[in-house]
Write a structure and sequence with these properties.
By secondary structure, the chain is mainly α. Helices cover about 90% and strands about 0% of the residues. The longest helix is centred in the middle third of the chain and has 46 residues, at about 5-50. It is rod-shaped.
Length: about 50
């Protein structure tokens, strides 16, 4: 398999750029998901304790 050096260089340049532009949105989404999970999990624990 012949790998095009230009294509590899292009990937090395574009991948971090894409990652940087997406990382903020992903981080925000990830934090929301984590918070949502913790809240839901906590509510379930509280219900079990009361029950």
């Amino acid at each position: 398999v012949v790998v095009n050096a230009a294509a590899v260089a292009d990937l090395r340049i574009t991948t971090p750029v894409i990652w940087l532009t997406n990382s903020h949105a992903l981080c925000e989404q990830g934090l929301r998901s984590a918070l949502q999970f913790l809240v839901t999990h906590h509510e379930l624990d509280v219900r079990e304790d009361q029950g």
